[in-house]
Amino acid sequence: MTKTKSTVPLRLIEETSDYWRVVFDYPPFNIVDATIFEGLQELLGRMEASPSLRVVVFESANPDFYLSHFDLTGKIGNIMSAVGASGLPILMDTFVRLTKSPVVSIAKIRGCVRGVSSEFVLACDMRFASRENTRLGQPEVGVGLHPGGGGTERLPHLVGRGRALEIVLGANDFDGDTAERYGYVNRAVPDAELDSFVDALARRIASFDRRAIAAAKHLVNQVSLPSADRLLDAFTSFGTALTWPEAQQRIQALLERGLQREDDFEKRWPEMLGTLLET
Amino acid sequence: MTKTKSTVPLRLIEETSDYWRVVFDYPPFNIVDATIFEGLQELLGRMEASPSLRVVVFESANPDFYLSHFDLTGKIGNIMSAVGASGLPILMDTFVRLTKSPVVSIAKIRGCVRGVSSEFVLACDMRFASRENTRLGQPEVGVGLHPGGGGTERLPHLVGRGRALEIVLGANDFDGDTAERYGYVNRAVPDAELDSFVDALARRIASFDRRAIAAAKHLVNQVSLPSADRLLDAFTSFGTALTWPEAQQRIQALLERGLQREDDFEKRWPEMLGTLLET
Amino acid sequence: MTKTKSTVPLRLIEETSDYWRVVFDYPPFNIVDATIFEGLQELLGRMEASPSLRVVVFESANPDFYLSHFDLTGKIGNIMSAVGASGLPILMDTFVRLTKSPVVSIAKIRGCVRGVSSEFVLACDMRFASRENTRLGQPEVGVGLHPGGGGTERLPHLVGRGRALEIVLGANDFDGDTAERYGYVNRAVPDAELDSFVDALARRIASFDRRAIAAAKHLVNQVSLPSADRLLDAFTSFGTALTWPEAQQRIQALLERGLQREDDFEKRWPEMLGTLLET
Predict the structure, then answer these.
(1) C140, C153, C180, C266: which one is catalytic?
(2) Rounded to an integer, what distance in angstroms lies between the CA atom of residue A172 and that of residue A155?
(3) Is the CB of B146 less than 8 angstroms away from the CB of A204?
(4) How far apart (Å, rounded) are the C-alpha atoms in residues C156 and B23?
(5) Cβ separation of A201 and B162 shorter than 8 Å?
(6) What is the pLDDT of residues B137-167, one digit of tens each?
(7) Is there a contact between A223 and B247 if contact means CB atoms under 8 Å apart?
(8) H-state helical runs in A105-262
């Protein structure tokens, strides 16, 4: 959110005082580390201090990677331990404040969106994905872990228990069409129309009264958000899972094969999880 | 429900003692005002006094308008204040009694169905919509208000939080195909087949034992109906929203542009909500 | 599970110690009676005693009948009265233990799957159905009964209240495509690809760590399983419904027409329920 490129994981474009776009731009792969969460925390502070803001669209500067996944080399700072404004750990605080904000959040998805990044878009109010260019999933179980940032709590309500278990236990990518059919995203939109579709919807919402938007979203939230207790259970269990030797072995295997280093592997790694430990 | 056309917003056709059709016929646009609710309250009384009745199909005499929307000129009588048989305000009482009735309710949808009318079909047990001729939505937020008759409580369970927020905050129309894809209606059926499809289903259900139907519906209700507390929260908040100056300004703008007067505007007004206050 | 064909309703194929297939093989129609539940109870005991097992696929030796339906000639032994390991009646105990097992269960569906058999696949973690060869439904209401083994509790969460009521009150068959569109199954897969699709998914899951699988499934279960109270309500009510004279009359009519005897009638009987008592 600052001016210096090297420390700018999120670029803020104020289309109007009612409508902002936030562009993830954190080369090479938009990996989700402490820096991304710092940017999101700063953004949430700005959103909360902007009384005329109605809607924020989240997108990526890199069409291959929306946000790729949780940093597995350890650059996660204090996001698992320090608490944010809600009193919850920063990782959870970020997602929970986004869901409860009177401002509407829209994820405009192109490219790879896995694990904690899937949980970010699940914490957005709506998700629109490129029909041709989306790889969305929760591959944690294939890495010896499990989702810890709300995926296991939000997916069953969106897609039902059977599809939630397929997504979480199958640990593979979902393309735009399948994600739409399952209800994982609102719609898969042809890539050439995605920008104009989302922009029109955002401008439309931005023209409405903030008080009406906030009241309506609050009412929907009352019957659709998971409880903080359930979210904390998953988060705490995830913290433990990170210490499991099986998980560490799988993480090492992925890093050795090219995760977070090689473009091609970074795009396709969930496919390989079923044979990760074979020689 | 009486014989005089001028006071007959609902026509009752008793196909058999097991199976009734109710036809909304309240020119010019089937606008939902106190008269419609009087008709529905009288109908509910008749349904509750008919021990052999199994199923009621709700349809419209006007293919362009199923029920259009809440009357915005003030002709709502006491439906927000007086209470019905359940002890809830008449607007809510009507919808809640329909959901809990041992009689099965089926909405056969053609034409425009917006706001409180969407909430009426959401209170029906099933919804079948014309594939070619359906304009279904919750445009309240675009009028400076929010849904108050169950839309914000029933939609998340049917379509998930993301799509519910798109429907409610986007405040636009959904056609038959999109409504089916989202789960907003059970099915979109080709218009030429809609009557026979719904009639066959209704006659089939009418042939079953009332006790079995009632027990099965009761069990499904136990795990799928929103609580009265949640419904009352939304209803009360809606009553307050009607007094907001922003809402009054938008309602005035709509009435000046032709709402409840001009056929073409009445069909297309949600499209215009994004530019309603522009000169 | 034993070697003698006459007492072997379930054949167990241990593909590996991680991945089992269970084949229903109980001619002529795989009717669900006390013998099937004995086999499932024995299987659950084996699953619980197999610490390296990750995933079980359930399929049928007969492509026309997965499991057909509850035995209506009375051969249900003590599955409604005696309790299983969970303290719940055996019928419920079987389904509840399957849902809570750390082992992943996948239903690979071909042929007829009705009533208690639908409730079996709803208790599995995932359901994949043959696109061309699936007849899935809850026809109990058309037999004067209602679902009692979890159908009324699990369907609303998967498909929403409107579609759940259509399935339960319409009491008819759903083909693979409609079942997928409704969310009743995860996916309808072309029959020629079904075996390889499910096998690849099962082997993939079998390669993951059991601890990660168990933790992830447990978290999803916390927000997606119906309560034991709700399941018991339906089960108890079903026990009562079996004594209703209307139900007994419909059951007799079905048995006289050929149920559990004639192949063609066994395949198509739900179609006839709307005219069952006509002469």
Answers:
(1) C140
(2) 15
(3) no
(4) 29
(5) no
(6) 999 999 999 999 999 999 999 999 999 999 9
(7) no
(8) 116-123, 151-170, 176-182, 191-206, 210-222, 228-241, 245-257
Q: List, in order, residues 6 or more apart from B243 with CB less than 8 Å away.
A: none
Report phi then psi at C71, rounded to 5: -65, 125
Q: For residue B192, give both structure tokens.
A: 């030429």
- Residue-wise pLDDT for A193-204, tens only, equals 999 999 999 999
H/E run at residue B109: strand B104-114
Q: pTM here?
A: 0.97
Crossing angle of helices B90-100/B116-123, nearest 10°?
Answer: 30
pLDDT in tens, C238-251: 999 999 999 999 99
Give the position of tokens 């049928």.
C60
The alpha carbon dihedral of A25, A30, A35, A37 has a sign of positive
Q: CA dist C47 to A159, C52, C66, Å?
A: 28, 9, 21
Per-residue pLDDT of C22-47, as tens digits, reads: 999 999 999 999 999 999 999 999 99
Instruction: Report A:162-221 residues touching B (Cβ under 8 A).
Output: 180, 183, 185-186, 200-201, 203-205, 207-209, 211-213, 215-217, 219-221
User: Which of A122, A153, A159, A165 best probes binding to C when mutated, by most C CB atoms within 10 angstroms?
Assistant: A165
Q: Which pLDDT value is given to residue B8?
A: 75
Asked about A256 being catalytic, the answer comes back as no
Listed by number, the residues of chain A in 113-132 with a beta carbon closer than 8 Å to a beta carbon of chain B are 124-127
For the annotated catalytic residues of B, the residue numbers are: 119, 140
